[in-house]
Prior knowledge:
- By secondary structure, the protein is mainly β.
- It has one domain.
- 6% of the residues lie in helices and 40% in strands.
- A 5-stranded antiparallel sheet has the order 2-1-14-9-8, with no helix packed on it. It has a 5-stranded antiparallel sheet with strand order 3-12-11-4-7. It has a two-stranded antiparallel sheet with strand order 5-6.
- A hairpin with a 5-residue loop joins strand 1 and strand 2.
- The chain is globular, with a radius of gyration of 16 Å.
- The two termini are 12 Å apart.
Amino acid sequence: MGSSLLRYKEQIVLVLRDDATGKILQRLEIGPNIVTNSGDKYYAQRGAAETPTRTYSAGMMVVANSFKRAATKAATFGDFKLAGTYTGRQTFDAGYPKTNDSDTDNTGRTVDAVTYKRTYTTAQANYTIKAVGISQLNATSASAAGVRELASYKTLSVSLQVTKTSSQTLTAYINHTFNGV
């Protein structure tokens, strides 16, 4: 009997650049990140042309300096620990999310992937990044339904953590690739 299960691959790509020279200092390809239960529902509703319960296409990228627990399907925004003013929670770059990303810095892009992208300026997310994800717009750690939802969540092992300073920019890509079996 053939399988009709849909499989998807998630990959995070982090590109750290020197702001003055534009030179790439570090590129990490990290995967997989977990598409959460809320993310699964979002993609299912989009695939059925239904109005999504949670809207992640107008959401935010999150790079956090710490986390409360390792990645799980039930992860919420409250699982991130963010430095002071939430500079690690930012809206996506213009034109994202999108499919068939043409940005060559995104080594995880494919024609059948949804790519989310955020470029962090020299004033944002200046710390060691230990977790990455996609949240709803202006997500908080409050207990109200919806404000805590995440589409995806990844905690980074020590060897995959990135330390960003105010003389650097960071571009974060999260790719969700859908492939039938």
